[in-house]
Write a structure and sequence with these properties.
With about 400 residues, this protein is mainly alpha-helical. The protein has a domain at about 195-285. It has 17 helices and 5 strands. The strands form 2 sheets. Strands 1-2-3 form a 3-stranded antiparallel β-sheet, covered by helices on one side. Strands 4-5 form a two-stranded antiparallel sheet. A hairpin with a 6-residue loop joins β4 (about 205) and β5. α8 (about 160-170) crosses α17 (about 375-395) and α10 (about 185-200) crosses α12 (about 240-275). The radius of gyration is 25 Å and the shape is globular.
């Protein structure tokens, strides 16, 4: 029995995970070092607590490995319900950290329910999609799958924790693998492009060459898309076959009006919905001026400086000038990659990225080898969540993702 369980372990994946854990642990020790607690096992400091979490995760992995998969599948709904309840409770009795009411404080430790939501969604989504053949071909099943994702995402937005919500978009990739049409992905990408265009042009006033009246970039963009819509309308009338003309005319009108409405909503969200610090993060990402907070881009500037300071081979372990003197806030958590970049340089950064890439691909390969649909979907969920974490966290440090 023990031999059969042992054979189920993919040792290449396990060793890669362990190496990344050790790299993260010693990097946290370097970034958060305190001379009063110089032992890496000092549990009063973040590096000591990190060791505990590594041990806990390894123990949980062992327990899960020894647990029958049917039991895990049957527990998906209770786990999901418990996490949703925790997300509701944290809105009322949670502790505020970093501007979000998203933590339960337990002594010197904290629990963030939104982190458990990733596992809960993965379990229930895998359970639901594994019930039938091609469930995402059915509109009702698509709505249920999106609802499984939307309920925790909506509660997390109320905290507000936009970073975790962005991570949850990884499940769209999972659903795409399981048969979801590529149309939502195309619409999502086009929406991001139009939103970025709208924010950039709206930061500037425009005027006609023959007049003095100024108008906003939003007005200019809406006018451009309305003109394109009218041109498309007449082209369809002229070129489309008679039997499909009405359908394409209706589609052209819907697309044009949707884009115009979306552009208007982007401006409303940026100015009236987002909090000032959230709006500043978007402006910094798009390299737009931030007038009300000259220190808003402090993290980004110093993290880029730290990474650039590392050069090819780095400054050496615990020898980074920028990170050693704490010029980068949160350098032992969200901005940990700048510590790696400064101390280990380009070679060290490339090594860490290569390990993450290798681990993600191994997870995908393992997912494809699974006999049950439930296991395959859960494996893809883990791989996609890890991909989004790496993309957003490293992108944030180098200015390619919002902070």
């Amino acid at each position: 029995m023990a031999s059969r369980k042992q054979n189920r372990i993919d040792w290449t994946t396990a060793i890669t995970w362990l190496v990344l854990c050790l790299i993260g642990w010693i990097t946290i020790y370097s970034a958060a070092y305190n001379a009063d607690y110089d032992s890496i096992f000092s549990f009063n400091m973040s590096y000591g607590k990190q060791f505990i979490w590594i041990c806990v995760s390894a123990l949980l992995g062992g327990v899960i490995l020894l647990t029958d998969s049917t039991l895990i599948r049957n527990a998906s709904l209770p786990v999901y319900g418990t996490v949703v309840l925790m997300l509701i409770l944290v809105l009322f009795i949670g502790t505020v950290r970093g501007g979000a009411r998203s933590w339960f404080g337990i002594g010197s430790f904290g629990i963030q329910p939104s982190e458990f939501s990733k596992v809960a969604i993965a379990l229930l989504l895998a359970h639901f999609l594994g019930e039938g053949k091609e469930p995402l071909k059915n509109i009702r099943h698509r709505l249920i799958a999106l609802g499984i994702l939307a309920i925790p995402a909506g509660l997390i937005m109320l905290q507000p924790d936009t970073g975790t919500v962005l991570i949850l978009f990884a499940f769209i990739l999972v659903m795409y693998r399981e048969g979801l049409s590529g149309t939502p992905l195309i619409i999502g990408i086009c929406s991001i492009i139009i939103a970025v265009m709208s924010i950039i042009v709206n930061s500037t006033k425009y005027s006609l060459p023959f007049g003095t009246t100024e108008f906003s970039g939003q007005t200019l963009l809406i006018t451009v898309f309305l003109i394109l819509g009218v041109v498309g309308f007449f082209m369809v009338r002229k070129l489309a076959l008679p039997r499909s003309r009405k359908k394409f005319l209706r589609l052209t009108a819907i697309i044009t009006l949707s884009i115009v409405g979306f552009i208007s909503s982007v401006n409303f969200i940026i100015n009236d919905v987002l909090k000032p610090y959230q709006r500043n993060r978007v402006y910094i990402l798009l390299q737009l001026p931030v007038d009300d907070d000259p220190w808003a881009d402090w993290n980004i500037k110093n993290s880029k400086t730290a990474i650039g300071n590392g050069g090819l081979l780095g400054q050496g372990y615990r020898e980074g000038a920028i990170t050693k003197f704490r010029f980068v806030p949160e350098q032992n958590t969200d901005f940990i990659f700048c510590t790696i970049g400064e101390e280990w340089g380009y070679i060290g950064s490339l090594t860490v990225l290569s390990l993450f890439t290798f681990l993600i691909f191994r997870l995908i390969i393992m997912a494809e080898r699974q006999r049950s649909v439930f296991s395959r979907i859960f494996g893809y969920s883990v791989a996609c969540i890890l991909f989004m974490h790496v993309f957003i966290n490293i992108g944030m440090v180098i200015g390619l993702a919002p902070v």
